[in-house]
Amino acid sequence: MLKSAFMQPAKYRFIIGARLLQTEEGLKTSQVTKNYPAYRAGLKVGDIILMADTTPVTDANSFSNYLTDRGGTTQLIVKRSGNIRYINVNSVPVELQ
Questions:
Q1: Under 8 Å CB-to-CB from 69, ≥6 apart: which residues?
Q2: Residue 32 CB: number of other CB atoms within 10 A?
């Protein structure tokens, strides 16, 4: 029996368009891609993501999983130049190959 493509769940990840490096404090942005959600939300290179909503950010993989599980808008608690900022970012789905 043939299965329709519509019957199979799409394999995807949600992204914000930022390259992240793990630090002791959280995830530090090393690149923010222009015209992606992180850029539009105001995330800057050097920002350190401490929390996603009420969930502490410990590593890039768990952060990516959190975005994918949640989808939509996530409030990031970010440290920038010693100050705490709250940034709302809308993650977007990207189909996996």
A1: none
A2: 21
Per-residue pLDDT reduced to its tens digit, 32-88: 999 999 999 999 999 999 999 999 998 999 999 899 888 889 999 999 999 999 999
User: What is the C-alpha to C-alpha distance for residues 12 and 45, in angstroms, rounded to an integer?
Assistant: 26
SS (H, E, C) 15-84: ECCEEEEECCCCEEEEEECCCCHHHHHCCCCCCEEEEECCEECCCHHHHHHHHHHHCCEEEEEEEECCEE
CB neighbourhood size of 50 (10 A): 16
Contact 32, 17 (CB under 8 A): yes
C-alpha closest to that of 92 among 65, 73, 66, 76: 73
Residue type at 57 in one-letter notation: V
